[in-house]
Amino acid sequence: MDPFSLIASQSSETIDIGCSEVPKPVERRKWTTKEDVVLISAWLNTSKDPIVSTDQKAGAFWKRIEEYFNASPQLVGSVPRPWGQCKQRLGRVNEQVNRFVGSHETALREQASGTNENDVMKAAHDIFLNDYKVKFTMEHCWRELRFDQKWRSNVLSKEGAKEKRKDPVEEVGEEEDVRPPGIKAAKRKKHGKEAAFDKIETILAEKKNISKQKVLERLLGRKVETLSDEEVCLKKKLISEML
């Protein structure tokens, strides 16, 4: 047989690659409101569990969240999601909700007399759209997280870390005057009780925040028209302090 004919006949044969079908790419599924709420609940409960949240590798932590999420009775019949998708989604939720917190705080500061909570929310959405050129579609997530101390402290700690990375450390020259510590600070340092004092101050601050949160929850649970002028002012003040 002519060599060229042999090559042509071989090239026309079907080559068996050991697979009858080419695998299709995994289709991305949109997150539903119910899934978002369950995911937030999974993260909050897992992170608040002292046995789980301390001395634990990140992979194990998110695996627990995956198990909690997929075992939720609210998601019966839904396709399970792996922990990687849960982590990615929660990162997106944190980013967007944190931005909206700032928009809502601005709307509260600019609130005119005679406006209600619905007016504030509309203004907050407008501010968000103007600042980020996209609509805020996670109000259900914001309502789940806005008063949670664990989430707020987690976000604030991350923001503080970012600010520290942005600001260069200024070196103090040898000849510059360094302000001496205050009397109380000096006494605490002298007796080696700085950590104890700091812990007590933190506990007192947390108790104060919890007390304010309970008062605010009672005010939010009542209709606006039933509130007195003093209660309306207190409500606005507490909301601004919690943000």
What this model shows, in words?
Residues 157-178 are annotated as: Disordered. With 243 residues, the chain is mainly α. The chain has eleven helices and no strands. Helix 2 packs across helix 4. It is globular. Residues 6-18 and 167-181 have low confidence and may be disordered.
Topology:
Elements (H helix, E strand, L loop, with lengths): L2 H9 L21 H16 L1 H4 L4 H13 L12 H27 L7 H16 L6 H7 L3 H18 L16 H9 L2 H27 L8 H14 L1
Helix pairs in contact: 2-4, 2-5, 2-7, 4-5, 5-6, 5-7, 10-11
Protein name: Glutathione S-transferase T3-like
Organism: Raphanus sativus (Radish)
Helix/strand order, N-terminal first: HHHHHHHHHHH
Number of helices: 11
Number of strands: 0
Overall, the morphology is globular
What structural class do the secondary elements suggest?
A: mainly alpha
Unreliable residue stretches: 6-18, 167-181
Rg value = 28 Å
Q: Which percent range fits the helix content?
A: 55-70%
- What integer is the average pLDDT? 75
Strand share of the residues? Answer: under 5%
- Largest sheet at a glance? none
N-C termini distance: 85 Å
Summarize the structure.
The chain is mostly helical.
Task: List the keywords.
mainly alpha; 11 helices; globular; single chain; 243 residues; Glutathione S-transferase T3-like
